[in-house]
Amino acid sequence: MTPSQASPTEPGGAPRFGVNYTPTRGWFHHWLDFDLDAVRADLDSVAALGLDHIRVFPLWPVFQPNRTLVRPRAVGQLVQLVDAAAERGLDVAVDGLQGHLSSFDFRPSWTLTWHRRNMFTDPDVLDGQAAYLRTLAAALADRPGFIGMTLGNEINQFSGDPHPDPDRITPGEAEAWLRRMLDACERGAPGRLHLHAEYDAAWYRDDHPFTPAHAARLGAATAVHSWVFNGTAQRYGAEAPATGLHAAYMIELSKAWAEDPGRPVWLQEVGAPAPHIAADRAADFTRTTVAAALDCPDLWGITWWCSHDVDRSLADFPELEYSLGLLTNDREAKPAGRALARIVEDVRERGHRARPRTTALVLDLPDHAPKRSVCAPGGAFFEAFTRLAADGARPTTVLAGRASDPAHLAARGITETVTVDDVGRA
């Protein structure tokens, strides 16, 4: 069965391996002067690593410069990119509302300055966003290699601190926005893998309006974005077990809030950022991180950030953004790219299915968890999880309200529960 023929949520299926596509020519500004030949060359170098999918990023103000105008030519170019990927055996997931990428914000002028409106609650903005997402999804609905829509890249960063000019909302307003936008994607392309993706404030930041319950219950899968520059590498060190475990920890943390015991989790962004991970350690970090993630049941796939290094002729990126690629800007595989390619080859040859994790660390937080910094690196729950792992356990997580529910535990294969205090006394 080819990747495009496989059900994206098939239980027990081998995890998918892909990359977040960063064009070599012009970065995401390539939509302004789209060059299909350059895109094809980029995708050839991605396919050469043995990967099976890419995630792509239309720039929202380029595609929808006016609230009632979604540019047909831009949509057509997106379809061309998806078709070019399919020719190379690559399925495609598409993000819609870009949104935020690599420290830059991309919002259309009809939401800013003289037209400043809350992007999560203003009725006219909501109508425009829904129409845009529905249009993109509908344009791709008949493409067999189209995986589905993600609402936007880490769009929760617009909703609160530390953004310099946030559109503040409540958790209820965040949920209403998510439900409406996911519905728009489903209307455009029924049955695809439509989801939303937040950066880790949803899991770690107290009082953030996008919550773990939103992430783990809305949409067709849970998306996890794992970045060790969030304090993990700084606190524990680049080579510490906690750093290599961070992505797997986030995957298992998400399961505490999931209502479906077998809900797929997509490690949608993970990378080896310098200087937190030195260039000569990137391959080792890749191997360690991927091995830990593959030990998590219900993993839909791993999508590395990113495909190609950002061209250094482009200015004002944070330094780490220039070197995150699996390939150079000249499309040559780097050590991390070669390491991931070997992992992919091995998994495909040997097959893979992670065993259930039988030990669950009990998380005593409510469903929508206003105070969740206990889960962040340095927090008591994070410390207990990593200690269990260091002692040889393969821990998962469970909310305290479900820790005494035999049916829930059995559905997840959990045979033992432990508390943070238990780990502290051990």
Give the neighbour order of strands across the main sheet. Answer: 7-6-3-2-1-10-9-8
Mean pLDDT: 95
State the secondary-structure class.
alpha/beta
Cα-to-Cα separation, first versus last residue: 47 Å
Stretches where pLDDT is under 50 for at least 5 consecutive residues are 1-11
What does this protein structure show overall?
α9 runs parallel beside α10 (282-294), α9 crosses α12 (380-390) and α10 (282-294) packs parallel to α11 (335-350). It contains 14 helices and 13 strands. The longest helix is centred in the first third of the chain and has 18 residues, at 123-140. α10 links the parallel β9 (265-270) and β10. 35% of the residues lie in helices and 14% in strands. It folds into 2 domains: 16-350, Alpha-Beta Barrel (TIM Barrel); 359-425, no CATH class. It has helices at residues 36-47, 60-63, 72-87, 123-140, 171-188, 201-204, 212-217, 232-236, 241-254, 282-294, 335-350, 380-390, 406-412, 420-425; strands spanning 16-20, 53-56, 91-95, 100-101, 104-105, 146-153, 195-197, 222-226, 265-270, 299-304, 359-363, 395-399, 416-418. It is α/β, with parallel strands linked by helices and 426 residues long. The strands form 3 sheets. An 8-stranded parallel β-sheet has the order 7-6-3-2-1-10-9-8. It has a 3-stranded parallel β-sheet with strand order 12-11-13. Keywords: Hydrolase. This is Glycosyl hydrolase. It comes from Streptomyces lateritius.
